[in-house]
């Protein structure tokens, strides 16, 4: 599977707030919190579900990865989504290991494994309390 998704008992706003806190514990910051529903409505499009896209980054890891291969910039910053699907709040992300595999570089795969583990920890902490 190319992604990790977990269910949260919280509202989307509470889930985002908890996720941001847990990401900080894993040394990741949120560069951008994009409210897709609001943006679509601003553009005259109706979208029924809440959907937020967070771009998250660890500057040291980003520098190391980009210093090795600038093509990794196609995958950075990491995207995480928090959305409501049929009344259930979900948190997810594409797996960094899946994305980086396109570059066929073992060192970059190692970085991606570390990032994936840390982001998954933050997601799991967010939904477990």
TrEMBL record:
CDD domains reported for this sequence: DUF302
Residues annotated as domain DUF302: 34-96
Superkingdom in the source lineage: Bacteria
Annotated SUPFAM superfamilies: TT1751-like (SSF103247)
Pfam families: DUF302
PANTHER family (alphabetical): SLR5037 PROTEIN
Name by which UniProt lists this protein: DUF302 domain-containing protein
